[in-house]
Amino acid sequence: MKNVTDSFVSLGHWPSAGSFGFNTDILATNPINLSVVLGVLIFFGKGVLTDLLDNRKQRILNTIRNSEELRRGVIEQLERARARLRKVEMEADEYRMNGYSEIEREKVNLINATSYSLEQLENYKNETFRFEQQRAINQVRQQVFQQALQGALGTLNSCLNSELHFRTISANIGILGAMKEITD
Q: Domain extents for the chain?
C-alpha cells in the first residue's frame, strides 16, 4: 500500500507537472485519437452489431429448420416410394414370366425420379442457405458502413465552426471564380 501512495506522491515532483499545453507532435497524438475513436465505436456499436448478428442468426436458423422440414417431407416421399418399390417388386415376381423387363424399367425410373427430386431439394436448401448468408453479410456491412459514415459526419460537423466554414466557402467561391476566368 505504501508503494501505491509513494507513486502518487512522486507525481507532484515532476518538473513538467502543473503546465498545460497542446501536443503538436502528430505522430504522438494520432494513435491516441484513433484509439479513442475506435474505443467509442466498439463501445457503442457492439450492442447494435450483436443484435444484428443475433437476428441474422435466428433467420438463418429458421431457414435451416424450414429446409430440414422440407427434407423430412422428401424423405417421407422416398420411404413411400420405397414401399411402392417393394410392392412393385412383389408384383414383379408374379408377372416375371410376362413382363419382367417392363417392371424393371418402371423401378429404375421411380428410383431415378425420387433421387432427382431429393437432389433438387438438397440443392435448393444449399442455395437458400448461401443466399441468406450472403444477404446477412451484406446487411451487416451496410449497417456498419452507415454507422461509420454517421460517426465521421458527426465528427466533421463538430469540428467545423462558423469561421472555418465561412473560409472554406470563400475559398471554394474563389476557386470557382478563377476557373471561370480561365475558361473565358
A: 33-153
Give the span between the Cα atoms of 182 and 76, in whole angstroms: 80
User: What is the CB neighbour count within 10 angstroms for residue 143?
Assistant: 14
Sign of the Cα pseudo-torsion (56, 60, 66, 69, in order): negative
**Minimal CA–CA distance to 78: which of 117, 133, 30, 125?**
117
b/e per residue 70-97 (b: at least 16 CB within 10 A)? eeeebeeebeebeeebeebeeebeeeee
For the segment 41-61, what is each residue's pLDDT rounded down to a tens digit?
Answer: 888 878 888 888 899 999 999
Q: What are phi and psi of 75, to 5 degrees?
A: -65, -40
pLDDT digits 0-9 by tens, 79-113: 998 999 898 888 877 777 666 677 778 888 989 98
* 60 contacts 133 by C-beta, under 8 angstroms: yes
Sole residue written with cell 456499436: 45
For residues 168 and 154, give the distance between their C-alpha atoms in angstroms, rounded to a whole number: 18
Contact 91, 103 (CB under 8 A): yes
